[in-house]
């Protein structure tokens, strides 16, 4: 295929209300939409939504790199295979995924350092275009046995327990079987009031997961989970700081629920250790699951590599959004459909958090599931998402 047009458009997302995590509060997200067009008029879409505190490059670096890459792509002939997409972006290093600091081949300007958000945007646009040329949904490029739909969890964003209860009951009424609640960054007493209120409101059968965003020390994590574990938790995401896998392993060994590594995947060194049976981790996996953020890992293909390696070590995997737009969430849904297991709900039901979410697109959850469109590629109209 030959790329005849390659454009970059700024994208700004405003949240209806700030989302508080232990790392800070988010009210807006800024990034870019990548649009590639081939000689037959087919269009591939990608999205870059940098999140530096999770390990991506800055917004300015992302824009500069993407601008240079897209300029160099115009007029180029690329192969019609997934391998051609990998070759365009450069192959993975032998031990970890491309997010470790890939360099685009010599025909592209070299980036100043790791640029996973830019890599994600270009890879997604290329995969979308390739899938459209082959006439298949994008997930079929990732796995022949990709599932037609993915389970998704509902993110509860309210702070006040009463508001949380209302939000939780609404989510359950809409068909969600898994609820996710942010913890840490406040007192344990406050967190317990919030968790208890949600559990009592939805009953024992709804799965409840917590996300600490690395906001607890190891002692705090153990004390918090000892208390919060009484409320029947499915799992807790990143209870301890991202760089300390030993602490994460020790917390997992005594936690009343599964521990999932999230922010730990944003560091190449920590990711490498996580995907090995390092003796300091007792010869086994550090955690029960890994949380895949394609924007942080550098794309869908690196995310799939991490999931497959994690599965071989006995760890499950699921996909979450990093507060991205529709294009990135669509790609993440296709990755979730291609994972070795779909048992854990993915965190892709965040459209309701945004002030101007496109009213009609095929990735809106229905009854706690996203059913992937059967149309080629991502199945998105550029006019709807830009």
Automatic annotation (TrEMBL):
Active-site positions on this chain: 182, 293
Transmembrane regions: none
PROSITE patterns, alphabetized: MR_MLE_2
NCBIfam families: menC_gam_Gplu
Keyword Metal-binding applies: yes
Cofactor(s) required, per the database record: a divalent metal cation
Domain Mandelate racemase/muconate lactonizing enzyme C-terminal, first and last residues per copy: 161-258
Pathway as given in its UniProt record: Quinol/quinone metabolism; menaquinone biosynthesis; Quinol/quinone metabolism; 1,4-dihydroxy-2-naphthoate biosynthesis; 1,4-dihydroxy-2-naphthoate from chorismate: step 4/7
Chain positions recorded as Mg(2+) binding sites: 211, 237, 262
Gene: menC
Function: Converts 2-succinyl-6-hydroxy-2,4-cyclohexadiene-1-carboxylate (SHCHC) to 2-succinylbenzoate (OSB).
Entry's family note: Belongs to the mandelate racemase/muconate lactonizing enzyme family. MenC type 1 subfamily.
Protein name according to UniProt: o-succinylbenzoate synthase
Protein keywords: Isomerase, Lyase, Magnesium, Menaquinone biosynthesis, Metal-binding
GO molecular function per UniProt: O-succinylbenzoate synthase activity
Organism domain of life: Bacteria
UniProt key word Magnesium: yes
One Pfam family matching this protein: MR_MLE_C
InterPro entries registered for this protein in UniProt: Enolase-like_C_sf, Enolase-like_N, Enolase_C-like, Mandel_Rmase/mucon_lact_enz_CS, Mandelate_racemase_C, Mandelate_racemase_N_dom, OSB_synthase_MenC1
Catalytic activity: (1R,6R)-6-hydroxy-2-succinyl-cyclohexa-2,4-diene-1-carboxylate = 2-succinylbenzoate + H2O
EC number(s) recorded for this UniProt protein: 4.2.1.113
Upper taxonomic lineage: Bacteria, Pseudomonadati, Myxococcota, Myxococcia, Myxococcales
Organism for this UniProt entry: Myxococcus landrumensis
């Amino acid at each position: 295929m030959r790329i005849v047009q390659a454009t970059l458009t700024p994208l700004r997302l405003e949240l209806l209300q700030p989302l508080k995590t232990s790392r800070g509060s988010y009210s807006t997200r800024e990034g870019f939409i990548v649009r590639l067009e081939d000689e037959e008029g087919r269009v591939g879409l990608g999205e870059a939504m940098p999140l530096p505190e999770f390990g991506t490059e800055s917004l300015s670096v992302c824009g500069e790199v993407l601008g240079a890459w897209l300029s160099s792509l115009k007029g180029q002939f690329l192969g019609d295979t997934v391998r051609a997409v990998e070759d365009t972006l450069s192959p993975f290093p032998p031990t970890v995924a491309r997010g470790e600091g890939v360099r685009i081949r010599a025909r592209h300007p070299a980036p100043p350092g790791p640029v996973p958000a830019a890599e994600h945007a270009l890879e997604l646009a290329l995969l979308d275009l390739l899938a459209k040329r082959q006439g298949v949904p994008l997930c079929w490029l990732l796995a022949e046995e990709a599932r037609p739909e993915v389970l998704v969890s509902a993110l509860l964003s309210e702070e006040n327990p009463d508001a949380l209860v209302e939000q939780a009951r609404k989510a359950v009424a809409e068909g969600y079987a898994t609820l996710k609640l942010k913890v840490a960054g406040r007192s344990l007493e406050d967190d317990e009031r919030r968790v208890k209120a949600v559990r009592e409101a939805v009953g024992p059968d709804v799965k409840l997961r917590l996300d600490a965003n690395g906001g607890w020390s190891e002692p705090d994590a153990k004390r918090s989970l000892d208390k919060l574990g009484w409320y029947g938790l499915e799992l807790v995401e990143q209870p301890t700081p991202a760089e300390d896998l030993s602490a994460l392993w020790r917390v997992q060994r005594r936690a009343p629920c599964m521990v999932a590594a999230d922010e730990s995947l944003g560091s190449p060194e920590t990711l490498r250790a996580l995907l090995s049976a390092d003796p300091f981790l007792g010869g086994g996996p550090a955690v029960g699951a890994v949380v895949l953020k394609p924007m942080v890992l550098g794309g869908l293909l690196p995310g799939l590599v991490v999931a497959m390696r994690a599965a071989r070590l006995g760890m499950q995997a699921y996909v979450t959004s990093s507060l991205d737009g529709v294009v990135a969430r669509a790609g993440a849904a296709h990755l979730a459909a291609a994972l070795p297991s779909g048992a854990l709900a993915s965190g892709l039901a965040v459209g309701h958090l945004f002030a101007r979410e496109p009213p009609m697109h095929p990735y809106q959850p229905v009854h706690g599931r996203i059913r992937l469109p059967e149309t080629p590629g991502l199945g998105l109209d550029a006019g709807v998402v830009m």
